[in-house]
Amino acid sequence: QKKRRAATARRQHLKSAMLQLAVTEIEKETAAKEVEKQNYLAEHCPPLSLPGSMQELQELCKKLHAKIESVDEERYDTEVKLQKTTKELEDLSQKLFDLRGKFKRPPLRRVRMSADAMLRALLGSKHKVCMDLRANLKQVKKEDTEKEKDLRDVGDWRKNIEEKSGMEGRKKMFEAGE
Fold first, then answer.
1. Do the beta carbons of residue 120 and residue 127 sit within 8 Å?
2. In this structure, are residues 51 and 57 in contact, taking their beta carbons and an 8 Å threshold?
């Protein structure tokens, strides 16, 4: 019991120590990211100084629009490059998969189709012949066998049981056996 308590207490202590370390590491990471963000913004986005005259404002707007267009072009180029590389990766992974030779077969489902539906699927709209496979079958009458006649003659099973019950029924069975 003492060993178990000591082990669980130690485990709890280690867990809390790890959580405290993780919290401090996360705080350090967020602070580093914030500093990096501030440095990037200071480098790439100089502080905005608004000019007093209307003409200078228009020139500033034109410069901003030009920067926006250049950034959009860069974004578009990087997206296209990313799409190309993902496509190449997919192609290479498919080639690798083909070279291994292990093909994963898709699970096949059973589909109930009539002969008409099958021909329609294979031939398309050309199929106009109706195939009723049961139309040409012969009608066969069921012949009465002797067992079925005997069963019909016996009739209700309760009557048969009542006849055989008691001493008279046993006497009949005994005489029938001789």
1. yes
2. yes
Q: How far apart are CA 115 and CA 123, in angstroms?
A: 12
Q: What is the pTM of this model?
A: 0.33
Q: Where are the beta strands (DSSP E) in 99-154?
A: none
The first and second tokens of residue 36, run together, are 């990096």
**CA geometry: angle 11, 16, 17, nearest 5 deg:** 95
How many alpha carbons fall within 13 Å on the CB side of residue 95?
6
Give, for all 178 residues of the chain, the pLDDT tens digit: 667 777 888 889 999 999 999 999 999 999 999 999 999 988 888 777 777 788 888 898 899 899 999 999 999 999 999 999 999 999 998 888 878 776 667 777 777 777 777 777 777 766 566 666 666 677 766 665 666 666 655 555 556 665 666 666 655 665 665 5
